[in-house]
Amino acid sequence: MRVLWIDAAAEHGGDPQVELLLDFPTVSPLPRRPDPGSAGPPVVSVRGLVKRYGSVTAVDGLDLALAPASVLALLGPNGAGKSTTVDVCTGFATADAGEVRVLGTDPAGAPEALRARIGVMPQGGGAYPGVRAGEMLRLVATCAANPLDPAWLIDVLGLGGCARTAYKRLSGGQQQRLALGCAIVGRPELVFLDEPTAGLDPQGRRLVWELVDALRRDGVAVLLTTHLMEEAEALADHVVIVDHGRVVAEGSPAALTTGGDQELRFRARPGMDVAGLATALPAGYRAAETLAGRYVVQGRIDPAVLSSITGWCAAQGALADDVQVARRSLEDVFLELTGRELRP
Amino acid sequence: MRTPFPPGTFTPRPGAGAPGSMFVAQAATELRLALRNGEQVLLTLVIPVLLLVGLTVLDVVPLPEPRVAAVTPSVLALAVMSTAFTSQAIALGFDRRYGVIRRLAATALPRWLLVAGRLAAVLATVAVQVVVLAALAAVLGWRPAAAGLGWALLLVLLGCAAFGALGLLLGGTLRADVVLAVANAVWFVLLLAGGIVVPLDRLPGPVAATAALLPSGALAEGLRTVLTTGSGPGAGPVLVLLAWTAAGTALAVRTVRLR
After folding, report:
1. Residue A28 included in any domain
2. Structural domain includes residue B175
3. Last residue of a domain, one of A257, A289, A305
4. Is 0.85 exceeded by the ipTM?
5. Which of A232, A309, B48, B133 could be joined to A73 by an S-S link, Cβ 3.0–4.6 Å?
């Protein structure tokens, strides 16, 4: 887990915000549940979902199943159809084709009965522009039969200092945490979180992760969308990677990241001849300099190969530093499946 | 690991809140917001109060004596238009931009309660306006025809319905900044040429004929009739207000978007 985060930090060129993630403890102290299927019928079941907006097909035959008391991450680039899927599951959009069952009901049929049982965090949150944070959470709590104590929730969400601040004057992160509070204050049995950590600082993200973990521990099923690999990897029992409205891969984070080659990463002086390194290794090994001074060797990494690599570096007068052997990260899987070009 | 969430904190206990509590909570929140927002208070209370005093004391618009008897019904009509139409449309436009309608729709709050809570907040604001303006008018010497008070109440409610439906239609369909511009422009035009400040019989012929068919002209003229003479408003103003209510509601039901 820590190795993967180090990878992520390296990918981001050592962005300080990402570096902070290195100090995160492993969020989930609990054993992960197995993939859906063993823990009773799914609480969310989507089969062959199609949703079009005009000539744009936002969701194109998507399937997913969320097991009770588990966390499913819908992972994909911008415009992959994640939010549209959540909208259909929560009754804010109707499917053009396919079958959607949420807690055993069709969300398009009786959204109000369903919404009494679920919690929803829409993308970007939502509140009256002039409402105070505490007022808004109390109002949403009133809509539930057995809500959590809004005053306590405001406090643990770190909003105690701005409970009397108007929503439009809250920072993006504060608005985001209030939206999260609104989604869980009604003690729902199923929670939809659309990009719950977008725009949060590392502390805020950590809070969300702890919260999602506590929800699962207490028997709440969570469906969240994200485009952050480390988030899906850290939180989800089951990851569904979507692109262009279709599922391109799914499974537990472990299942998605095993298979394929191992890789070895190290740092050394920039500009070494990686083609020479590859020829120094047995056939089938690939070597590349991903960023200046950061090297990666892909293939089965055994002690002999490790020794060849450090020996080759020594022959170049360089010290191989910060050497790590890793599985591929979910980010690698994701980029392999969805391509590297930027999305609008 | 230390966690602020002891085991069992989130054990599901789902269910909808009591309809009565939801209604009161939402209506009270919206009313508090309306009375706390400076621009809305300017529109709903400060300007009507200034116009009531100004038009009564200053001879800028030719009016029959006592001037306060002609001015008060106009200002009451203005108050209804400001709250139910302009202020409500602007609030709804920005509420949609900030995602609150969708946020509330995502809770167990039924759609009809969402509308009822908004409506109740509008009616409560109008009640505050009527009390303040009527009290101030009484200080200025206003003595309305007692027999017309029941009719006036009916017209105010019909005015709330007509302007409210149009406000929902405007605020629920366009972008917030466009709503802001359109709602203020309509308010200003109807104030001057829609039969509110200048009575219909003082407007040029074609303008007067048009204004009589607008909700502003129908409401203001109806209120002037019932509060000065004590007799009924006649079918005209009532039918005009009902027609605008029906048209506005029918269009709003089809076109209003959550965001």
Report:
1. no
2. yes
3. A257
4. yes
5. A232
- Note whether A301 and A246 are same-domain residues: no
Q: In which domain, by residue range, is A311 found?
A: 263-326
pLDDT higher than 80, residue A339:
no
The verdict on residue A27 lying in a domain is no
Question: In terms of domains, do A52 and A82 share one?
Answer: yes
Q: Is the pLDDT of residue B179 over 60?
A: yes
Query: What is the percent of chain A where pLDDT is above 70?
Result: 84
Structural domains in chain B (count): 1
Condensed to tens digits (0 to 9), the pLDDT of residues A212-238 reads 999 999 999 999 999 887 888 889 999
Q: Which pLDDT value is given to residue A23?
A: 33
Percent share of chain B, pLDDT over 90: 68
Q: Which residues in chain A are contacts of B108 at CB distance < 8 A?
A: 112, 115-116, 143-144, 186
A97 within some domain: yes
d(Cα A156, Cα A185) in Å, to the nearest integer?
12
Which letter does DSSP use for residue B46 in this model?
Answer: I
Residues A66, A184 share a domain: yes
Pairing status of strand A238-243 against strand A246-251:
antiparallel
Mean pLDDT of B33-43: 91
Please indicate, yes or no, whether residues A94 and A230 belong to a single structural domain of this protein.
yes
**In this predicted structure, what is the pLDDT of residue A334?**
74
Task: Please give the sequence-ordered ranges of beta strands (E in DSSP) within B89-229, or none if there are none.
Answer: none
User: Which among B9, B14, B97 has the least Cβ separation from residue A218?
Assistant: B9
Domain assignment of residue A29, yes or no:
no
Query: What is the pLDDT at residue B133?
Result: 96
Residue B77 placed within a domain: yes
Contact residues on chain A for B21, CB-CB shorter than 8 A: 142
Number of domains in chain A: 2
pLDDT of the residue at A183: 95
- The residue among B197 and A8 whose pLDDT is bigger is B197
A188 and A311 in a common domain: no
SS3 assignment, position A121: strand
Tens digits of per-residue pLDDT, A103-155? 999 998 878 889 999 999 988 789 999 999 999 999 999 999 999 999 999 99
Residue that finishes a domain, picked among A231, A257, A283 = A257
Say whether both A154 and A271 belong to one domain.
no
Structural domain range at position B38: 20-255
Chain B contact residues (CB < 8 Å to A)? 1, 3-5, 7-18, 21-22, 25-26, 29-30, 32-33, 36-37, 94-95, 97-111, 258
Among A116, A120, A156, the residue with its CB nearest the CB of B4 is: A156
Question: Rounded to whole angstroms, how far apart are CA atoms A196 and A224?
Answer: 7
* Residues in A touching B110 (Cβ below 8 Å): 112
Buried/exposed code over A26-36 (b: 16+ C-beta within 10 A; e: otherwise): ebbeeeebebb
